[in-house]
User: Fold this.
Amino acid sequence: MPASSEAPLDAVALRASDGPSPELNELVDRIGLVDHHTHSVVAGPVDRDAYAFMLDESDRPASARVAGLDTQVGFAVRRWCAPLLGLAPHAPADAFLEARLALAPTDATARFLPTAGFERLLVETGYRGDALFATPELERLTRTPVSTVARLETIAESVAGRGSAAGDFANAVRRSVDAALAAGAVGLKSIVAYRAGLDVDPRRPSDAEVERAAGAWLATLDAGSAPRLADPVLLRFLLWTALDTGRPLQVHTGFGDPDLHLRRSDPLLLTDFIRLSDGRAPILLLHTYPFHREAGYLAQMFEHVYVDVGLAVNYSGAQSPQIIAESLELAPFRKVLFSSDAWGLPDLHLLGSLLFRRGLSRVLGRWVVDGDWSLADAERVVRLVAAENARRVYGLPEGTTTA
Assistant:
């Protein structure tokens, strides 16, 4: 029988950190992580097909059915989540799924997330929020403080759905962005990579351009249909609206579902926008793979640019230490943050934590035992990447679960 969700194991008990430096492993296992970009958990029942679909980054259910659990992320959940179900690591897929799907979403969340060792979750609320646990419920189940990040495109689509006139659209969006921040959002996020590509014109559009584009877009909307913003002028307007707040701006780059064209999600395409935005607000390049080296270059060149490799860590599984190592080649260590980008399945939140801990312990531990780094320097970088960088950029309070 699965173990009780009221007595979860912790990251130390799971011993994710197995690098060559025992002293560093101890710190990496115990330190609380600030997940600076993640999502909530699906609140409804999950069957085999839905589980495979949410485990797969593709937006095509047929692709997930073909892949099943025969992927790096599928092998990783069997390795790391099986022990929390009373199973041996690497339990066969059928046995794993039987035990896993016997858990209600509340039970799975209450079992997996406290085990992950998070200090705080920064939850982006703009994607399918009606299917997910609301922030207070997620906070209760995970026993972890939760802050929110507001998605710009969702805000604009909400304004359009309320019947805004073209002439008032820009101000209505600005008011809604300000309201989201006043309500507690610690940052803003753009998915311009999905909607138009990162190679959009980097310049701020004029008020007249925004009004014309808004009028054209609003005229196409059918009553009762869900608006979808893809106009490049309006997407640029959202980016500049975010910069005007001075608050951290997250931008999805790199790997994602087929709704984007990967070649147009290279963060280097943002270089001119980054130049124009210098001194206005922190820009956080999310996920970045397979362009994580390019993102590291941007973080080194521009003082307001930060990076993570969150999504890639889960989906590369056993290969993730190499990606973590490559992300630390050029980026200053005060510019690298942890994220999981987990959505829907609490398994992915747990996996994001444990794979990141394992990868960091192996990479930094090897540099320590080879004499390239001191143990003190490695421990300082662990603390920076795990939580301190996120606290500084987002203005978060000091955590209570750090080592």
Strands lie at 33-38, 118-124, 146-151, 187-190, 249-253, 283-287, 305-307. Confidence is low (pLDDT under 50) at residues 1-9. The first strand starts at residue 33 and ends at 38. The chain is about 50% helix and 10% strand.
